[in-house]
């Protein structure tokens, strides 16, 4: 019995301890939240600089494609990606074997057409000579019949005289018919010659076209710049899916007519493209100064200025967060010759300075039910306080609605209460999530 009493007492102690522990755990929620890191709202000036990342790109890019030859073309020469070329340098060349065969065939047809024209002209000249002889004979017969009719009627019989008159009429009729036939023969001969000459012209056009295609098989750079070879989308036989890695065009590939092969980027005039969110877009103007630091040349910052601002938000699958993104284009005042298109750069756009504003760290402002809030400590817990955001920089946010020196939470109190301190920092909903920020 004593043993049972001891066991029951031990069980009661264990249950009581568990209840106490549970109550302590429940009560420790706000206490743990009270351990969240905090900062104070301070008053002063706020520099509204915009930090972003982007890349150099050529303001002028010329795409070069395979010539239109009516069939597949085989590459026998191709400049590599990154090759610096001058205007007039050969960047790609195609096998001219098929076009040379077409040219030889066209030249053979042209030679045959030339001989046909020569033969037709000779036939026309011979036919014209025959017509002239026939016309001369017809005129001679008419003249002879006229002389026969001049014989006095009294010297010959009446029947003979009438016969001579009928002969004269018949010769005149034949002369008119001969003249008509000569004109018709001349017209027919000219028409037949025109047909033969048209065939010759067609053969000449085919030969000239074959020569032009052969000349176009050697493609030269129209401008000075860098070569960027495109991906060969025909390498997979027409099968393509998202995320698939495609090889670049290379020597030996068969290319369809008109297919784009490479781009030549003008490196003498380059610009920088970055993306900013809609809050930062409102603070930017064309001509605003900026400092650019290329990752390839980190110790050589360059001065730049904004040349254009997109008025329409971009639609991109890479965008994260609720804020829309806008494209900003900058141009470097003096570009370094070592900079290349595609080089990643870090851009700091100099913004205006706002004086005498109350600001808190940027991560202290959260979004709750569509409004901006900060968390203020009240006893052993944090309570949300609605604030008005007036300006934002890279690290601080100017707000209205709290007193100077007020203590605000830097992380969500809920996260601080449920997560260990080492994992407490969490990104607030209002923090920028654009891909172009540092």
Question: How do you describe this structure in short?
Answer:
This protein has 438 residues and is α+β, with helices and mostly antiparallel strands. The protein is built from five helices and 23 strands.
How are the SSEs placed, and which strands pair?
Layout: H1 2-34, E1 38-40, E2 42-47, E3 50-58, E4 61-65, E5 73-78, E6 84-85, E7 90-94, H2 97-149, H3 158-216, E8 218-220, E9 225-229, E10 254-255, E11 260-265, E12 270-277, H4 278-281, E13 289-294, E14 302-309, E15 325-332, E16 344-349, E17 353-361, E18 366-368, E19 371-378, E20 381-386, E21 388-392, E22 396-400, E23 407-409, H5 413-418
Using brief descriptors, characterize the structure shown.
438 residues, alpha+beta, conserved putative lor/sdh protein from methanococcus maripaludis s2 fold, OB fold (Dihydrolipoamide Acetyltransferase, E2P), Helix Hairpins, 4 domains, 6-stranded antiparallel barrel, 4-stranded antiparallel β-sheet, 5 helices, rod-shaped, disordered C terminus
């Amino acid at each position: 019995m004593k043993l049972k009493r001891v066991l029951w007492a031990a069980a009661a102690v264990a249950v009581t301890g568990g209840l106490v522990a549970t109550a302590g755990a429940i009560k420790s929620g706000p206490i743990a939240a009270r351990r969240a890191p905090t900062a104070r709202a301070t008053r002063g000036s706020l520099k509204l600089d915009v930090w972003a990342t982007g890349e150099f790109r050529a303001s002028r890019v010329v795409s070069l494609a395979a010539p239109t030859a009516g069939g597949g073309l085989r590459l026998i020469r191709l400049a590599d990606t990154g090759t610096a070329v001058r205007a007039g340098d050969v960047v790609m060349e195609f096998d001219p074997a098929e076009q040379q065969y077409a040219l030889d065939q066209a030249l053979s047809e042209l030679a045959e057409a030339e001989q046909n024209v020569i033969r037709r002209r000779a036939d026309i000249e011979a036919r014209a000579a025959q017509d002239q002889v026939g016309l001369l004979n017809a005129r001679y017969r008419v003249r002879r019949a006229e002389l026969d009719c001049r014989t006095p009627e009294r010297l010959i019989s009446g029947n003979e005289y009438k016969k001579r008159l009928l002969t004269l009429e018949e010769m005149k009729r034949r002369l008119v018919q001969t003249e008509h036939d000569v004109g018709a023969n001349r017209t027919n001969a000219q028409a037949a010659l025109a047909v033969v000459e048209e065939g010759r012209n067609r053969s000449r056009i085919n030969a000239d076209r074959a020569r032009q295609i052969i000349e176009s098989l050697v493609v030269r750079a129209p401008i000075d710049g860098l070569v960027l070879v495109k991906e060969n989308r025909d390498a997979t036989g027409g099968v393509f899916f998202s995320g698939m890695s495609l090889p670049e065009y290379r020597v030996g590939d068969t290319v369809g007519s008109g297919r784009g092969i490479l781009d030549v980027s003008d490196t003498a005039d380059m610009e920088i493209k970055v993306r900013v969110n809609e809050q930062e877009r409102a603070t930017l103007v064309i001509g605003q100064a900026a400092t650019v630091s290329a990752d390839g040349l980190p110790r050589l910052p360059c001065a730049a200025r904004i040349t254009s601002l997109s008025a329409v938000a971009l639609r991109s699958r890479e965008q994260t967060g609720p804020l829309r993104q806008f494209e900003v284009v900058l141009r470097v005042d003096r570009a370094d010759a070592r900079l290349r298109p595609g080089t990643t750069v870090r851009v700091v756009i100099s913004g205006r300075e706002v004086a005498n504003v109350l600001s808190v760290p940027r991560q202290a402002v959260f979004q709750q039910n569509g409004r901006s809030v900060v968390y203020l400590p009240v006893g052993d817990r944090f309570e949300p306080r609605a604030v008005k955001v007036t300006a934002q920089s890279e690290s601080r946010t100017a707000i209205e609605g709290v007193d100077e020196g007020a203590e605000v939470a830097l992380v969500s109190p809920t996260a601080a209460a449920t997560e260990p301190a080492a994992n407490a920092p969490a990104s607030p909903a209002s923090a920028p999530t654009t891909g172009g920020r540092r």
